[in-house]
Amino acid sequence: MPSVSAHPDVMEKLVSLAKRRGFIFQSSEIYGGTGSVWDYGPLGVELKKNVKDRWWHAMVRARDDIEGLDAAILMHPRVWEASGHVAGFTDPLVDCRNCKRRFRADDPAIKGTPGAPDAQCPVCGSKGTLSEPRLFNLMFKTFMGPVEESASVVYLRPETAQGIFVNFLNVQQSTRQKIPFGIAQIGKAFRNEITPGNFIFRTREFEQMEMQFFVEPGTDEEHFEYWKAQRMEWHRALGLSPERLRYKPHEQLAHYARAAADIEFDFGGSLGFQEIEGIHNRSDFDLGRHQEYSGKKLEFFDQPNNRRFIPYVIETSVGADRTTLALLVNAYREEEVPGESEGRTVLGLAPSIAPIKAGVFPLVKKDGMPEIAQRIADDLRRAFPVFYDDGGAIGRRYRRQDEVGTPFGITVDGQSTQDGTVTVRDRDTLQQVRVAADQLRGYITERVTVT
Ligand code: GAP
Q1: Which atom number of ligand 1 is nearest to the Cα of residue 319?
Q2: What pairs with residue 234 in β-bridges?
Q3: Nearest ligand 1 atom, CA 262
Q4: Is the pLDDT of residue 174 over 60?
Q5: Could you tell me if the CB of 411 is within 6 A of ligand 1?
Q6: How confident is the model at residue 432 (pLDDT cuts 50, 70, 90)?
Q7: What pLDDT is stored for residue 145 in this prediction?
Q8: SS3 state at 185
Q9: d(CA 386, CA 355)
């Protein structure tokens, strides 16, 4: 496929770095792996947690008009009838009767029209073995309780949003919030994607960070514009390069949507610009449907005007994993180092989201330097994650931290044993400054904290 992006394709290098350095592993790898499911290793879990914390802070803690929620994954099966997922959350698929593979009906690799005698399977190459397209629901089904029968079918939620809708009145009444206000949550979602791939870009188990903002009908357009701008700003503040971000308005709207736009990030190579977040004006569709299916009123009582109405909803929905991937792609660079024969690989992550904030190194393993360095590492560890490393040449140790995005390298040298100062090396500029060891905690904290 021709490249659609001016940025290089770094995915293969990232997959390898992510495994080698403990960011992301294939799920159940020793058994040959589980398709499109990934596990986060020690550094990956820190990175993704930092992303989620930043979202939670911006959307919940720093505002007085959004409340947090953590709804269960398993919900009453009627929820998914009301939401439209049972009837409509489908992809048209075709099966090959010969090799038993399954494809999306619109897979460009299929030659001919599926179902016709000349249609050719893109994997085994047989002709006439592809079935007519059938609709396939993407929700994972399981059974609740001891009996495996249709009456006990439940679904793994394919989005977190419905947990917010069904709790609308619980949250509004318990917090006494007035319209406009929002409910936010972070949680796992599951989709039996047929064409998953591109590492953690499209997976079958993933985390969403969703917020539903409940507004008075008629004010929805201005709230939609406000949230579009806010969310773009959040991605930029996280460190994604502005020129790799853009809006993509939806040309075809879902039947309930009054407006929708994606925020897209340029992943480079042939993947190019892809959605990382959706912002939707969902009208009163969701609360209206849940009111209809549950038989319970889901109206807001506007006391001053003594009237009741079903609020409109502006939704912001972003994937924690997809944002993490965007950050890794955005941060990855290979560069020459002036005056050195060996180049280096750097993850230029914003210091606030980097998994490790500082590497701590004794220059040599003698003359009391390891003891001082250990004491410094123990002290700093109480404030943020640090990594102590006394193995190998100092240049190597710096490189190992550059590769995982650690913004600062602290070195204890001969002078440290005399005057209590250490060198602090900046990952990006390679500049080194001397800082008193007892000032280090404040020095680093100031540079890794977002205010
Ligand atoms: N409640 C609306 C909703 O779920 P969506 O566009 O289907 O909207 C929102 O999903 C976000 O969730 C996407 O922009 C993406 O970041 C993430 N997402 C969706 N499906 C995903 C998958 N299979 N793997 C990883 N992330 C996914």
Answers
A1: 16
A2: none
A3: 14
A4: yes
A5: no
A6: very high
A7: 87
A8: strand
A9: 9
In contact, 322 and 117? CB cutoff 8 Å: no
| Residue owning tokens 């770095």 | 17
Give the DSSP letter string of 35-47.
TT-EEE-HHHHHH
Closest C-alpha to ligand 1, atom 21: 202
Closest CA to 239 of 328, 318, 316, 321: 328
Render pLDDT for 285-298 as a digit per residue (tens, 0 to 9): 999 999 999 999 99
Which of the residue ranges 68-72, 97-101, 119-123, 339-343 would you say has the lowest mean pLDDT?
Answer: 339-343
Residues 6+ apart with CB under 8 A from 407: 349, 351, 354, 357, 358, 426, 427, 428, 447, 448
How far does residue 211's CA lie from ligand 1's centre (Å)? 13
pLDDT in tens, 358-374: 999 999 999 999 999 99
Residue 386 makes CB contacts below 8 A (sequence gap 6+) with 356, 357, 358, 359, 360, 377, 380
Q: Is the pLDDT of residue 3 over 60?
A: no
Residue 2 has pLDDT above 80, yes or no: no
Question: How many whole angstroms from 318 Cα to the centroid of ligand 1?
Answer: 6
Q: With residue 369 as reference, give the H or E element that holds it.
A: helix 369-381
State whether the beta carbon of 158 lies less than 6 angstroms from ligand 1.
Answer: no
Asked if residue 9 has pLDDT above 70, the reply is yes
Measured on CA atoms in the order 27, 28, 30, 35, is the torsion positive or negative? negative
- Tell me how crowded residue 151 is: count the other CB atoms within 10 A of its CB: 9
Q: Is the CB of residue 206 below 6 angstroms from any atom belonging to ligand 1?
A: yes
Query: What CA–CA distance (Å, rounded) separates 185 from 55?
Result: 10
| % of the chain surpassing 70 pLDDT | 99
Q: What is the 244 CA–ligand 1 centroid distance (Å)?
A: 19
Q: Is 318 in the pocket of ligand 1 (CB under 6 A)?
A: yes
